[in-house]
Every structure is written in structure tokens, then in C-alpha cells.
Design goal:
Layout (H helix, E strand, L loop, with lengths): L17 E3 L1 H7 L2 E6 L11 H14 L4 E5 L5 H13 L2 E7 L8 H8 L3 E5 L7 H14 L5 E4 L6 H21 L5 E6 L3 H12 L5 E6 L5 H18 L12 E2 L12 H14 L8 H13 L8 E6 L9 H11 L7
Parallel strand pairs: 2-10, 3-4, 3-6, 4-5, 7-8, 7-10, 8-9
Antiparallel strand pairs: 1-2
């Protein structure tokens, strides 16, 4: 790596595998590879573990006794933060400005298994309510004597980005070893940290790999602004040699399918396809949606037949058990429940 960053080794199984998927390749008419970041060890894996290795180093260095982070009710990032806190002997709280889904299941169950608090507040839409909520949560634990290290949504700040800068270096080495360095890496885009880390890593290290992001939530003015500010801030923090204008970031914004984490039939079909052809479980919020978008891109000719694709599996499979998705799966999968 051309840039400096210190981390705690929390993921015992790096590099994660880069695998060729023969059945999906045949089905879609492309050369399909998958980067298995769903297999990062701890807390059922996922992309956030790489970011958290760097963030946890900073937390420990600052003498934190507690990690506080934020997300939606079923945040994967929150679950992985809970795992890191458990492993390091720290307390953890996940602040969700969201409605309580009414049951302890999916990520919330895992958060609680690992000892994290999950703090809810009903959103009202009032300006500044997110920050006010976070201030209240942090103040609550500080009043109990905790030294809180706050991790933003998705771990997506400059420090967290380092995890995916490192992943870009790893992918570059793996792709070269497999003779697929002209491939396009496809990644879901949420809070942008994964995409930005990959982009900066590939460009700053001079990798020939291409990168396409697929937004899983509306990519409006605020996200456009965040994208450019994030790059500027990372460039300054780490002295990146690469330059970027908006046109240098390829993010597909047309496959959002109604909004964040909404049940969607095309996404479920994509989840079934991957599960039934390759026994790899995607999730309905991020990776299933990105895979559905990728299938659309192939059907629309944006990705040509025979092209080499590396799909980043960023984890999230506990999400199949969130109540509003589970009810759809139950309905569609009933026909294979057979009583004899
Ligand atoms: C499973 C999964 N994939 C992808 C993402 C998107 O990553 P980022 O927020 O860094 O854009 C997330 C974010 O929470 C996630 O949980």
C-alpha cells in the first residue's frame, strides 16, 4: 500500500477468496467472479469488518471503553461493530433513528447476542433530529462513565475507507494472479465508504481493474455532494496522488428499486438465482439489489457478453430474516414446503 494506516487484526481470514462462479457465468453469459467479503470472520462477516479494523485501532489508541455507532434498525454495520466491541472487550450501543420492528430478530438478535444495546427513537422528520439523537445517546453513556468512540454510519469516514483501499490492493494482486486484471469490479453503494476505498485504492496504486458502483438508495444532491467531499477529504488525509472529477466515478443510480431496504421482486429473484446456482446467500437490501442491477446492466447491454465481472459480496445475509422481507420469502417459498 502506498499510504499509511494502522489497524487491529480482527479478520483472521484475509485475503478473502476470489472465486469463479461457473453456473452464474453460464446463466448470464459473462465471466463471473465473486469476492467473498461476506466471509470475513467475526459476527457473521461482511464489508464493515475491514473498515472496523482501522477504526478500532483509533478507538483503542484514544482509550475508548465503548463504541457507539448509528444506522437503520437492521444495520449490518451495527452488527459488525457489536462483534468488534465484544472481541475487544468494549461496550457497544447502536443508535437507530428508526421504528423498532417489533421483534428481536435478524441483525437485532445478533446485536443482542453479542451484548450490544440497540437504542431506538421514532423519527419525526424534524431538522437536525439525527444529530440530536446521537448527542443524547453519547451523553447517556458518558454519564455512566464510558469513554465513547463514535463511528459514523457505515464506518464511512477517512479512516474506515482504508479498509477498502486495502481490499483494492488485495483484489489487484488476486486478479493479476488469475489473469483477469481487465475485469470490472461491481460493488453496492450505500454510505459510499466501500466504493470510495476501492476507487482510491485501485487508482492510487495504478491497478488496471475497473470499478462500477450500484446505488442501493436514492443518489440525490446530498450524496453527490458527499461523494466529492469524501474524495477531497481522503485525498488530503492520506496525500493521495490521484485526482478525480465527478465523471471519474462510475455509479449506476437507476437500480434503486423504490428506495432503501424495500422488498422488491426482482431483488428476490436475483437472491434465488445466486442461491440456487451457486449456494451463495445474498441479502435483500444491498447485495441482492446490486446483483439485480448487474443483471439489468447485462440485459441492457451496458455490460457486454463475455465481459469479466468481479462482484463484491459485501455480506448482509442476516437481512433475509428481517420481518418485512421474511414475509415475502415465506409467501413465495411456501410451494416447496411439502407434508407427506
Ligand atoms: C451488506 C452491505 N453491503 C454493502 C454496503 C454498502 O457499503 P457502504 O456503506 O460502504 O457504501 C453495506 C452498508 O451497510 C452493507 O451492509
Amino acid at each position: 500500500m502506498k499510504i499509511e494506516g494502522k489497524k487491529v487484526n480482527l479478520t483472521s481470514n484475509l485475503p478473502t477468496p476470489l472465486e469463479y462462479l461457473p453456473s452464474i457465468s453460464k446463466e448470464l453469459g459473462v465471466e463471473f467472479y465473486i469476492k467473498r467479503d461476506d466471509l470475513t470472520s467475526l459476527a457473521m462477516g461482511g464489508n464493515k469488518m475491514r473498515k472496523l479494523e482501522y477504526l478500532a485501532y483509533e478507538a483503542l489508541e484514544q482509550g475508548a471503553t465503548m463504541l457507539v455507532t448509528a444506522g437503520g434498525a437492521q444495520t449490518n454495520h451495527g452488527r459488525q461493530t457489536a462483534g468488534v466491541a465484544a472481541k475487544l472487550g468494549l461496550k457497544c450501543a447502536i443508535a437507530c433513528l428508526d421504528n423498532y420492528p417489533g421483534e428481536i430478530s435478524a441483525n437485532i438478535l445478533l446485536d443482542r447476542l453479542m451484548g450490544a444495546d440497540v437504542v431506538f427513537r421514532k423519527p419525526t422528520g424534524a431538522p437536525g433530529e439525527q444529530q440530536a439523537f446521537l448527542n443524547d445517546v453519547i451523553a447517556h453513556y458518558e454519564a455512566q462513565g464510558e469513554k465513547v468512540y463514535f463511528i459514523p454510519f457505515g464506518g464511512s469516514n477517512d479512516v474506515g475507507m482504508l479498509g477498502y483501499y486495502e481490499c483494492a490492493c488485495e483484489l489487484d494482486r488476486q486478479a493479476k494472479a488469475m489473469g483477469i486484471e481487465d475485469a470490472t469490479v461491481i460493488s453496492a453503494v450505500g454510505s459510499i465508504g466501500t466504493y470510495m476505498g476501492l476507487w482510491c485504492g485501485l487508482k492510487n496504486e495504478g491497478s488496471p481493474l475497473n470499478l462500477t458502483g450500484i446505488a442501493i438508495l436514492p443518489f440525490g444532491e446530498d450524496r453527490e455532494k458527499r461523494l466529492m467531499e469524501y474524495f477531497a477529504s481522503a485525498k488530503e488525509s492520506f496525500g493521495l496522488e490521484c485526482e478525480a472529477e465527478r465523471g471519474d466515478f462510475h455509479i449506476e443510480t437507476g437500480y434503486v428499486r423504490g428506495g432503501y431496504n424495500l422488498p422488491n421482486e426482482d431483488v428476490r429473484k436475483a437472491v434465488y438465482l445466486m442461491a440456487r446456482k451457486e449456494a451463495i446467500i445474498l441479502d435483500p437490501c444491498y447485495t441482492g439489489k446490486a446483483f439485480a442491477g448487474l443483471i439489468d446492466m447485462i440485459n441492457e447491454g451496458k455490460i457486454k457478453k463475455g465481459e469479466k465481472i468481479i462482484f463484491l459480496h459485501s455480506g448482509g445475509h442476516p437481512g433475509i430474516n428481517t420481518p418485512h422481507h421474511r414475509v415475502e420469502f415465506e409467501r413465495e417459498l411456501q410451494d416447496g414446503i411439502i407434508m407427506m
